[in-house]
Amino acid sequence: MQARDSTLHEILLPVRGTFIIFTFVLALLVNFLPWSGWWVFLKPDFVALVLLYWCIQQPRKVGFTSAWLLGLVMDVAEGSLFGQHALAYSVLAYAGIVLHRRVLMFTLRDQILHVVVLLLLNDLIVLGVRMFAGAAFPGWSYFAGSLVAAVMWPVLTYMFKLPQRPTPDPDRV
Amino acid sequence: MEHSPPPFFRRGPTPLVRLLLCSLMSVAFLISDARYGYLEGIRQAVSVVIYPLQRLAAAPRALLDTVGEFFVTQSALRTENARLSAQSLSEAAILRKYAALSAENAHLRELLGARQRFPESTIFAEVLYAGRDLFTRKIVVDKGQQHGVKPGQPVIDQIGVVGQVTRIYPWLSEVTLITDKDQAVPVQSLRNGLRAVLGGTGNDGQLELKFTPLNADFQNGDQLVTSGIDGVYPPGLPVAEVINVERNAAYLFARITCKPLAGVTSHSQVLVLTWENQLPERPAEETKAAPRAKKPRRGS
After folding, report:
1. Contact (CB, 8 A) for B233 and B161
2. In this structure, what DSSP letter does residue B200 have?
């Protein structure tokens, strides 16, 4: 109960737009790293994770336009069919925006359960588009990345809220 | 906080409408890219914008390699040096013979009236990253349009064929490996000159000879080289080795599994062959005209 109250009723500074852009660029950069071997399967889609975070936390600042543009960028970077990530990220943004009030009601641990479903949905859309275009099923380990991403959700929430925390009052210890 | 009116006064379209709009646009992009390839311009533009990010992401590994090179011991360098000089000595003899042979070959071809094989030149390229997309087997190398790379050019390493350039960007290009599911290489067995089509399976380190009849004479250990009849790969490049032949009379074709010779997944440098295809024009009209001539006869 204590933990729930402290995360729910925290008074935070407004988030800065530059910080949102910075996190997106960072997520793209991490996605572009030369992952190889088993890391390819375990690697979460950081862009999807960060996008979902901002859609849930700041649905009025981050929405469909950012989701769609980020999807196009990912499509170009991966050399995949144009529009598959754009489609998946749009659906992800929709789910985040529609569910944002509900998700934020829960503790961080319970939020993971929401996030993992949404990220798996994102994977499913990409998989569906690829298999429709004639690709083979890459195996169940394809979904491992989203599970890893969902586990990272509390860490991400903590880190992304750091710049919004007011500096501690010197009068109170 | 900014002083914007409360959300229920101006909200624009509802999320569902926006989602439908975005999905429609995505699907339109998907179809026009998959079917017609209209969007290469947008792709090129976006690739230019994200190029610095991609180079930045590839930088840590390059830095790590440089640092690793710095800490090589002297004994390792000396053994490598000895090995390389021995190798170059043994190869010098072969090379001298090669020069004489290629001159002789050119002369003989001239005598026979055969077309000359054009000497191919190469572009050296470094692999930036590999295999991020789980559905395909592709690598991205650091040479592109600006360096003279063209789509369709074959890519090799020091042993044999690695793949083919399938898409170019201004400073990068994308190479589809021969292990990709949709990639095919026309090959020829070194032992008996039998021709076949070698296709990828989508698994690393596994290739398959497609549509070979059950009685085709392939054995374990057969070396397969490019046949050159497609006009994409120059003839005679090593590609793969047969590792398993399975003949089951219940199926129409033999299942022949092969192993790529080149380090398809493990290289960091590759060569792009700028090979000009000089095949004569194909007689396309005759094959088209033949069935048309037959049709009225069937109708009457």
Report:
1. yes
2. E
Label residue B116 by pLDDT band (50, 70, 90): low
Q: What is the pLDDT of residues B193-220, one digit of tens each?
A: 899 999 988 777 889 998 888 888 898 9
Would you state the structure tokens that stand for residue B260, as one six-digit string? 């790529």
User: What tokens were used for B200?
Assistant: 């990828």
CA-to-CA dists, residue A93 to A76, B4, B8, B16, B187, angstroms: 20, 23, 20, 11, 48
Q: Can you tell me the distance from the alpha carbon of B160 to that of B175, in angstroms, rounded to the nearest whole number?
A: 15
How far is Cα of residue B137 from the mean position of the Cα atoms in its chain?
9
Token readout for A57 is: 């936390």
State the pLDDT at residue B181: 85
Length of chain A: 173
* CA A35 vs CA A71, A98, A164: distances in Å: 19, 33, 32
Q: Which of A78, A81, A134 shows the shortest C-beta gap to B30?
A: A81
Q: How far is B57 from chain A (nearest CA, A)?
A: 5
Please indicate whether, in this complex, the C-beta atoms of A87 and B27 are within 8 angstroms of each other: yes
pLDDT confidence of residue B296: 46
pTM, rounded to two decimals: 0.77
Strand, coil or helix: B79: helix
Chain B positions touching A62 (Cβ under 8 A) are: none
The interface pTM score, or ipTM, of the predicted complex is 0.82
